[in-house]
Every structure is written in structure tokens, then in C-alpha cells.
Amino acid sequence: MIRAISHLIDDASFGGINRMLEYMESSPELAKIADHRIVPVRRGQLSAPTLGADLIVSHLSISWANLPMLTALRAAYPNTPIVHMEHSYSERFVALHVENRDRFTALLQTAYALFDKVVAVSEMQGAWLNRRGLCPPGSLLVIEPCVDLDPFLAHEGHRDAPEFVIGAIGRFDLQKGFDILIDAFRQVRRADLALHLYGDGPDVDDLQNRAKGHPAIIFKGYTADVPAAMAACDAIALPSRWEPYGLVAVEAMAVDRPVLCPRHDGLIGHIAAGAHDIGENSAAGWTAALEALDVDAQRRPCGRTRAHAAGAGRRFAKAWAGLVDEVFNDRDAEAGAA
């Protein structure tokens, strides 16, 4: 039986969440599990949308402004399983941005109690949610996000050039930490490294000012062809201040490009899969890591990380199939007990 799943989304940007949902709509493997339907909702709206679904999956932002709608959703569909996938929060996010921890904990516990299951996007995020007692017992699962990686896996080979290009790809905002990387790069003394930044966002002017015309720091602008952008680099850097998962890392591995990142949040899982741990996520930490970088070693093919990326779609489909089975088995067990 093919069930209908409505995926609720309140983020209109072409970021990782929407790319993941588009992949879910178009993937033949995921179509065997369910009919996936994307349902946009307005952030902060008070009423639940009209849905005809066997399962509802929230990809919504958990906030006090969204709590009335989440409560209305639960009330409108008391007999329909509702799952939440947590894309936003992580241990590092809380450490950096949450002053009133008790209030924030109350928000998450109240919201998560409305769902039959809560899905973490990485093992580290899931461990944090469990450790802090934020989810009801037995409700937490982990599903690492995925997108269509075939265009990334189609790229073969490595660049053969005297200059070693480090790429940074994503939204230019506080979270992604490109300011840290630029500040570090301006202190690097070696002449064989270049930094290419792909993207756009609210911090673009600040980042360009920080670069101060450094000849090896190049802003490439927004690109829709992320696989080609990654293939034009020799390594991909993720200097994120917080990162529940870090989809860019698995995309870079699919192109067979080494990933450079700090050891926190979901990035820890990528380091376990073969990413390079740069140490402290500060300008000084990145400067030291870049000065010590062995560019010849980084250009060698890495079958381990590419195989890990090649299996991401299969793991993603298996995890969603397991979630659907678990949700409806739980519901059947509850009905039988009644």
C-alpha cells in the first residue's frame, strides 16, 4: 500500500530542506514508500492547512510564533500520525544564541510532545535531544538528509594546477562562518592556496569588505550548478558556527573532494566518514590548519568518502521506509490495545 505523506514547509528559500523535499518528490526509490507531497504554509499562521494524508511530516520552524498552528494541526488531525523533522536546532546553536535556556527547553518539549515521532538529522543532534530530555521517550529517530547526488557523482578526476583552490559554498550569513574563513585566509602566508566563495546572502557586503581585495580570495557569486562549482575546487571548507547536519559535506564527498570542517554538531559525523578535522573553528584554528595542509595528499582520490556519499540515497530511502513502518505499526498496536 502506497501511503500519502504531506510534508509541511515554511521556508521558501532554495536551501537544503527544499532540495531534500524536491528529491523526495522525484525519487523512484522513495516513490515506492509513499506519495510525497510538499505543502507550503505561512510561518506564524494560526490555522492548520487542509490535508488529505495518511502521514503528516513537519519541516517547520519550532518557535513560539508557530506553536499555535502546530497545536491546531494536532487538534485537526487527532488520528493521523504527525512527525517532525528538526532541521534548525543543535547543541552549538543553543550555546551561541539561547540566553534563556529554561524557556527554550519548554518550547521544544511542548512542541515535540505534539508529534508521534521526532526525526533528528544527525546522530549528534539526536544524542543532544536525548541527553537534554527534549523528546518524549521512544519518539526519536535519526534520518540524515539527502538530495539527488547523481550530478555530483558524475564528476570524475581532480584538478591539475599549481594553485590549490579551497571552495566555500552556501548562504552568506552568520551560521555558515565564511567570515571566519576569510579572516583566517588573510593570515595564511603560503602562496599556493586560493579561496573561492560561491553564494549570496545578507552578509555579502561584510564578507567582501573583510576580504579587503585579497588577490587569492575570489567571490564567484551564486551558482545553480553546485556540482560543477565543487569540481572546480580542490577541497571544500565548512566553517559553520553550528550545523545540525551539513549537506554540503556529503555533496563534496560525492564529487570526490576532501571536506575541511571543525568537530562539532553534525559535522562530527562527516569527520567519522572521512572529512578532515581542522581543529578549533576560529580564524587562528583555520589559519593553522591551512598552513599545515598537505595539498598533494588532499588531491588523491578517496574511495572511502565517495563510497559513503554514493550510499547516501540508499540509506535515506531505507530510513524513511523504516519510519513509515514504525509509525503505522505503533498506530496499529494502539488500535489493537483499544
UniProtKB/TrEMBL annotation:
Single GO molecular function: glycosyltransferase activity
Superkingdom, natural source: Bacteria
Domain Glycosyltransferase subfamily 4-like N-terminal: 51-150
Pfam families: Glyco_trans_1_4, Glyco_transf_4
Descriptive protein name: Glycosyltransferase subfamily 4-like N-terminal domain-containing protein
